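Ticket #4471: structure output looks truncated?

Reporter: J.K.
Steps to reproduce: submitted the chain below (138 residues) through the standard prediction queue, then opened the result file.
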Amino acid sequence: MAENNEKRLQKLYMQSQVLEHHIKHMQQQAAALNAQLVELLGAMQSLEDFKTVKPGTEILVPISSGVYAKAELKDTENLVVNVGAGTSVKKNLGDTKKIVESQVDEMKKIQEQILVELDKLTTQAALIEREMGKIASE
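Returned output as attached by the reporter:
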């Protein structure tokens, strides 16, 4: 009987380790997704603020991380939007906001899916841990 318990404990321990790895991976995905969501929400606010900017306004344009160039804004009605695969298109402010809102909605859906999956994995890990405790106390 003790040999069966030992084998069962080893199997449960391996399952526990695999689950722990999946949980950590999902947590990393959730954190990365959250950072992207914060960035998109910031973009939404910037687009809202952009409505009040007039042509000819001096702005700072990011060149790289922490490096900016002063520039004069020529067009406050249209923006250049990256639509993927290295392709950028001209969009008006309203259309640009819709694109960003759509991205925010999609991110929130993915975030919810990740949280549901994380909850399932944590529950499963807790059940395995409880079963390991029972076997170890026998």
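Triage note (M.O.): checked the attachment and the full token line is present. The helical segments are 2-50, 93-137.
Status: closed, working as intended.
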